[in-house]
Design a protein that fits this description.
rod-shaped; three-stranded antiparallel sheet; alpha/beta; 2 domains; 21% helix; four-stranded parallel sheet; Rossmann fold
């Protein structure tokens, strides 16, 4: 494989001349090492201004296709619930029941928190954080009613 030399314009508009000694290509990118590079660098073909040497080696449109980016995961739109003030075994059972009932169990009160289910040992910090997030605060009995009927207790 012969080196390839090209002038290149980066994302900030700076122009430079690059020479890659060990390189590969796909439909969108050139990737390779310059002399002295320890890791390969990737260059977008659409930012190449001019090929100065070695263009006859390129496949251009006949190059293998560039990999498509991985699809983004769909956001989890389930109502978030946090349990606090329960013994570990009780909390674990409530969390399993909540997941089975279609809730997303979280461990901290964030801005997306919808419900805080409090037990007898609930601390004021989580209660205040839940209030600040605009979450509904329920006890265990009210949560069970919500999970069974889909309605918030009045």
């Amino acid at each position: 494989m012969q080196p390839i030399k090209f002038s290149y314009r980066d994302a900030e508009g700076r122009e430079s001349v690059r020479t890659l000694t060990h390189w590969s290509e796909n439909t969108r990118y050139l990737q390779g090492r310059s002399q002295g590079d320890t890791l390969p660098r990737t260059f977008r073909k659409d930012r190449v201004i001019e090929y100065l040497e070695g263009a006859d080696q390129l496949l251009f449109d006949n190059a293998p296709p560039a990999p498509e980016p991985a699809p983004k995961a769909a956001p989890d739109l389930r109502a978030q619930i946090l349990f606090t003030g329960f013994k570990a075994a009780e909390r674990a059972a409530l969390e399993v029941f909540a997941e089975q009932s279609g809730f997303r169990v979280v461990k901290t009160a964030g801005k997306s928190l919808a419900l805080l289910c409090i037990g007898s040992n609930a601390g004021p910090t989580k209660v205040e954080a839940a209030r600040a997030a605009g979450a509904f605060i329920l006890n265990e009995m009210e949560f069970n009613q919500l999970a069974k009927t889909g309605e918030l207790p009045s």
